[in-house]
Amino acid sequence: MNSSKLLLTLAGAGAAVATLLYVPQGCTPHKSPAAGADAQAAEKVYVAPGKHDEFYNFVSGGFSGQMSVYGIPSGRLLKVIPVFSVNPENGWGYSEESKPMLNTTHGFVPWDDSHHVQLSQTNGAQDGKWAFINGNNTPRIARIDLKTFRTTEILEIPNSAGNHSSPYLTENTEYLVAGTRFSVPLGENQDVPVASYKKNFKGTLSFIKVRPEDGRMNVAFQILTPGVNFDLSRAGKQGSHGWFFFSCYNTEQAFNLLEVNASQKDKDYILAVNWKKAEEYLKAGKGKRLKSPHAHNVWDEKTHSGTSTIEQDIVQLDPRELPGLCYFIPCPKSPHGTDVDPTGEYIVGSGKLAAVVPVFSFRKMLAAIEKKDYEGQYDSIPVLQYENVLHGEVKKPGLGPLHTEFDAEGNAYTSMFVSSEIVKWNVKSLKVLDRLPTFYSIGHLSIPGGDTRKPHGKYMIAYNKITKDRYLPTGPELAQSAQLYDISGPKMKLLLDFPTIGEPHYAQSIPAAQVAPNSLKAFKLEENQHPYAAKGEKFARVERKGNQVHVYMTAIRSHLNPDIIEGVRVGDEVYFHLTNLEQDWDVPHGFAIKGAAENAELLIMPGETQTLKWQPKRVGIFPFYCTDFCSALHQEMQGYIRISPA
Ligand code: CUK
Ligand code: CUA
């Protein structure tokens, strides 16, 4: 059955289920035969009022461009962290301080499509310092600091389009990678016919170095590749540390995937990259320095502001000239996920259109490389022989395998998009142990620590592409959905559904105990080095510089100061620099002004300064106020600004 047919069938089934389950008001619902089982599930996900969840779950927002944070097992939404898209709720991308964070070489780009979350690791285990997420559309990687749950760095990836194979990382967070999905022409002359694809279009794999002390990222080097499409990637671990594995499709190098089917070949590839070798080549001065402007945006916690610089150069390595750097492993039918098990020995390929799940052996790969046991070359890069690298195949796994994660007992869990199920199998024996449907059409799945050397197991979360009848209908546009499973026993068990913000692709979870104790409560006012901070009510004032009016405003329960502003004219640029003087946890103040079309509100955390720019266009009296109910006298936190004729 082809995938669209199956999807239609699923949709049909969904509608039927909806008809069965929808109980109009006034009817008595039938007692569900599964009531006993449901009560057990409820007990497992119930987190009593005032109690905390066991795990944080960081979920990519897909086309919302954000990251959301849930508690597991309750499925409660704790926070939406704005990353690549503006967020009027707290002024991200609207405040003068956060605007530079969304700068790129294309200018201000306040939207993206974020697919994959990666939590930082030390010695192959989660360390709770940072979360990384990719921007797929305008190629970027962001770093979120888990002390503040804020985006503190965004790096644009040069020579890339569709930053999909990203931001997977090595087991000491030495490198993050960013593999380009769309091959594109590189360099100065990009005005070429699309039909010249084979000649002019190239792929790149970026290796981003992460500075251990503060997480700061920079492009260490790029590997030039043939014009294929890179999809996903994973680093080796333990024995295979030093290698990275990238799945790629369209090895036909077709530029029109509709007319020329990109899946006509029986096998595409997983590209194995020896990044330790790359480091040696770099040291020996082998790379080519290329002009590749890219934006690098960094948030400073002392000034509470972002700055954007355009960096110019990168070093590119060409594997055609550098032996031992790259090898292709054949992988059946349009591989999507490529995942490495906790031991680092097994590499799982997932051909979207394949009837088996191939599992490769790292040791066999090394042996084949040693013996130069190649089936040939692809664009001057050696291609290993499928059978010689294969550990074995999972037979009849289901339809449309996409992604695999692991538990601590040597088992793997693979998502099946087309047959809409999760299949549990044993990595050594390759035997299928269990399968369970998802509702509906699962994409990624995630086990806490399931991509590390030390999976925590216990839960698995499915991130589904289709919601249909799972919740009360909300018109044609529905929230997307996650499902929580108990995987502590031999059989998987569905516990809970919870809706997500945007399309959830990959997500990761971490024990709350590794993050919660470090969570910051307030910024220290005395450390505030914002150039326009007013660190006490006595510093509140208005200063004019030409046509710029700077309002140094303070907020503390329960007044804004100054609260009456006059002497401002149409044509002036008004900057409201708000400093929140509070030092108590959970006392933000908000700020908004009538008719400020170019802005949203500000939400200023204790000890912090943020700026709203306003260009008044008409004469009048304009009220402003605090938007966050902060005390019994919150409604008194208000004021007026008078705008006079130019
Ligand atoms: S992709 Cu979304 S289901 Cu962008 Cu990681 Cu596989
Ligand atoms: Cu401050 Cu309401």
Automatic annotation (TrEMBL):
**Could you confirm whether the keyword Signal appears in this record?**
yes
Question: What InterPro entries is this protein classified in?
Answer: Copper_CuA (IPR001505), Cupredoxin (IPR008972), N2O_reductase_N (IPR011045), N2OR_C (IPR034205), Nitrous_oxide_Rdtase_Sec-dep (IPR026468), Nos_propeller (IPR041114), NosZ/Cyto_c_oxidase_sub2 (IPR051403), WD40/YVTN_repeat-like_dom_sf (IPR015943)
Signal peptide range: 1-18
PROSITE patterns according to UniProt: COX2
Give a yes or no for keyword Ligase in this entry. no
Which keywords does the record carry? Copper, Metal-binding, Signal
Pfam families, sorted: nos_propeller
The entry's localization annotation reads: Cell envelope
Q: What is its main location?
A: other
Coiled-coil stretches noted in the UniProt entry, renumbered to this chain: none
Q: What is this protein called?
A: Sec-dependent nitrous-oxide reductase
Origin species, per record, is: Hymenobacter koreensis
Q: What is the lineage of its organism?
A: Bacteria, Pseudomonadati, Bacteroidota, Cytophagia, Cytophagales
